[in-house]
Amino acid sequence: MALSDRQSLAPPPAAQVPSLPRTPIRQPRLEAIEGGAAAGAAPAMPFSLKHWLESGLGGAVLGSFSIAMVLLGWYLATRYKLDFYVRFANIPTPMDVWHSILEVNRSTKFAVNIGISVRRVLLGFFGAAIVGTVLGIMVGRYRICRSLAMPAMELFRPIPAIAWVPMAIMLWPSNEVSIVFITFLGAFFPILINTIHGVEEIDEVLFRAAHSLGAKEKDVILHVVIPGALQHIFTGLAVGMGVAWVSLIAAEMISGQFGIGYFTWEAYSLISYPDIALGMITIGVLGLLCSKAIHICSKLAMPWMGVAAGARK
Amino acid sequence: MNAQSNGIQAGHIEVRDLNISFRARGETVQAVKSVSLNVQPGEFVSLIGPSGCGKSTLMNAVAGFTRANSGTLTLDGKRIDGPGSDRGVVFQQYSLFPWMTVRKNVEFGLKMKNVSPAQRETQARTLLGLAGLLAFENHYPSQLSGGMKQRVGIVRALATSPQVLLMDEPFGALDSQTRSVMQEILTNMWQRLRLSVLFITHDIEEAIFLSDRIYVMTARPGRIKAEIKVPLPRPRTPDMMDTPEFTGLIRSIKKLIREESLAAMGGELGDGGYDGLSMEIGPQGVANVL
User: Fold this and answer.
1) Do A70 and A207 belong to one domain?
2) Which of B123, B138, B161 is where one domain is finished?
3) A127-131, A207-211, B273-277: which range is least confident on average?
4) What is d(CA A266, CA A279) in angstroms, rounded to the nearest whole number?
5) Measured between alpha carbons, how far is B208 from B240 in angstroms, rounded to an integer?
6) What is the CATH number of the domain that holds B177?
7) Which residues of chain A make contact with B108, given a CB cutoff of 8 A?
8) What is the model's pLDDT at position B56?
9) Which of A19, A115, B108, B144 is the most exposed place for a label (fewest CB within 10 A)?
10) Contact: B235, A18; criterion CB under 8 Å
11) Taking a C-beta distance cutoff of 8 angstroms, is the pair A237, B109 a contact?
12) Contact call for residues A235 and A292 (beta carbons, < 8 A)
């Protein structure tokens, strides 16, 4: 059976006493067995579309192409006022929007609107991030917290943040606070649910390992629970940020006096159609910047992720 | 490195009359039944038995993860009532913290003991050097092979200078070549450190190659069926596996285990068709079957 196999694979019999200074000699053999660095010089390869697409240049070219197609389609549709059930007659052209950008930047009003929206999102989002992760960790770690908190949470969770608008206006002393509250609600549940999930996903053996190395509960939370749940927490933050923007824009459109959502809605009321498109594009760009920021934070916070060979095709 | 400060060899595990049962789906399952065993200071003891015989449960109790229903568990006369860094544990699954580099993993136990960062680093690097892993100190576990991860796991468990090392099928997930190399590394390390080891395995050769004594457990509920002394000299080398003594031991333990495996399957296979496989206890084999 395996005996003979092992015999042939076994290293030369060590007649001398194997005191540990032998380790350096053993090392190369271990590498051979365990497959340390397998890489060699990459052979010269003929041009391959697949590899070019995976390179940075290919990606940039494709990305520009993708955006150019949208702009071209937009231009053609509005230039020729296409009307095939979807009506482009009143839709501003890309040039109209460009002029509108130059126009709004003559005063600070537009920038103030953006600033107010960003402040609302950040207040609501960070509030939700703090409350959501702390509560999520407690619920995920302690049964009693789960029993106490979750029934109430499940009661509120199905109510979309936007449905809170009228109630929020009555609840909070000012419009401003109620809009932040709605943004908070939008971000809160995705963050909470993902954090709980993240804590529950942590392998039980890691808790045992920590305990057997002398860790107290505080150390377990700090060194096992938080880093262990971090990946899911960041998923929650990314989703939460998206929902925060959705909730914010809706709240601003309904009850706001300032903000980019209000700007967009007001443009519709004032029949200044290029500003509608400008508002939408601005919301898109702000949302994109926010999700990029979270992505960068997650990379910085989790240097251990993505160190192994990538899995993407 | 593992020098006992008081000069007296420590690391004496004493398990007496241990009973452990679980409640699973409303039923009470007895996993361990009146088990008594001991590990003497500096001794390497293996626990072997068919899968599901409760050997891991027993180890979890010694580690302090599982509570016993009755019986006593002591380490150097002190009652075990929870996990602690006096017992290093190496798990079957890789249990390294994925978010810590190799060195931070090794330092973790020292950090919990409030050892200063500089001293932590020195100690961790020394140990990693001994295990031939210094070049990987800044790697994350996901960048290591299975054998390397488990070496780091062993180094991490040793970093706090425990009196005993508890190992729950530590090489079970490794391929057979890596496994035999790891066995050699472990036996060399143990030889140097002279700490007590309780080693769980279902691999008979592994148990014989590594151990001073082997306990064979019965199928669930787990009891000690036999205690076997391994008379092979130290240091152990792979070529010993060909000696008649070694093969005799394999045969006798295999027979003991086979009886239990059949019992675990409810004896449904019977004995009729297995005549050709049944084995005699070798002449030099069992030293001490209780």
Assistant:
1) no
2) B161
3) B273-277
4) 10
5) 10
6) 3.40.50.300
7) 210, 213, 215, 223
8) 87
9) A19
10) yes
11) no
12) no
Is A228 part of any domain? Answer: yes
DSSP string, A185-213: HHHHHHHHHHHHHHHHHS-HHHHHHHHHT
Q: Which domain holds residue A209?
A: 107-301
A75 with A146, same domain: the answer is no
CB contact under 8 A, A17 and B156: no
Same structural domain, A129 and A215: yes
Same domain? For B77 and B28 the reply is: yes
CB contact under 8 A, A213 and B65: no
- Same domain, yes or no, for B108 and B184? no
Please judge whether B108 and A34 are an interchain contact, meaning their C-beta atoms are less than 8 angstroms apart: no
Partners of residue B247 in chain A, C-beta under 8 Å: 3
Same domain? B241 vs B221: yes
The amino acid sitting at A245 is W
| Nearest by CB: A213 against B109, B180, B191 | B109
Task: Give me the CATH number covering residue A114.
Answer: 1.10.3720.10
Same domain for A187 and A74?
Answer: no
- Contacting residues of B for A219, CB less than 8 Å apart: 112
Regarding whether A204 and A295 lie in a shared domain, the answer is yes
**A39 belongs to a structural domain:** no
Size of interface A-B (CB pairs under 8 A): 137
**pLDDT per residue over A116-139, tens digit each?**
999 999 999 999 999 999 999 999
Those residues whose C-beta lies under 8 Å from the C-beta of residue A66, and which sit 6 or more positions away, are none
Check A34 against B145: CB less than 8 A apart.
Answer: yes
**Which residues on chain A are in Cβ contact (under 8 Å) with B156?**
209, 213
Is the distance from CB of B282 to CB of B244 less than 8 angstroms? yes
Q: How far apart are CA A194 and CA A212, in angstroms?
A: 28
Q: Is B270 domain-assigned?
A: yes
Is the omega angle on the peptide bond into residue B235 within 30 degrees of 0, that is, cis? yes
Q: What is the pLDDT of residues B120-135, one digit of tens each?
A: 999 999 989 888 899 9
Q: Is the pLDDT of residue A83 over 90?
A: no
Whether A166 maps to a domain, the answer reads yes
Q: Are residues A244 and A285 in the same domain?
A: yes
Predicted complex ipTM = 0.84
Residue B237 has pLDDT above 90, yes or no: no
DSSP per position, B66-131? S--SEEEEEETTEEP-S--TTEEEE-SS----TTS-HHHHHHHHHHHTT--HHHHHHHHHHHHHHT
Domain of B127, in residue numbers: 95-161
Residue to mutate among A8, A27, A34, with most B CBs inside 10 A, is: A34
Are the Cβ atoms of A6 and B176 closer than 8 angstroms?
yes
Q: Which residue has the tokens 């609501």?
A: A124
Please give, rounded to a whole number of angstroms, the shortest distance from the CA of A44 to a CA of chain B. 27
Q: What is the pTM of this model?
A: 0.80
Contact A30 B181 (CB under 8 A): yes
Within a domain: B2: no
B177 and A33 within 8 Å at the Cβ level: the answer is yes
B108: contact with A, CB 8 A cutoff: yes
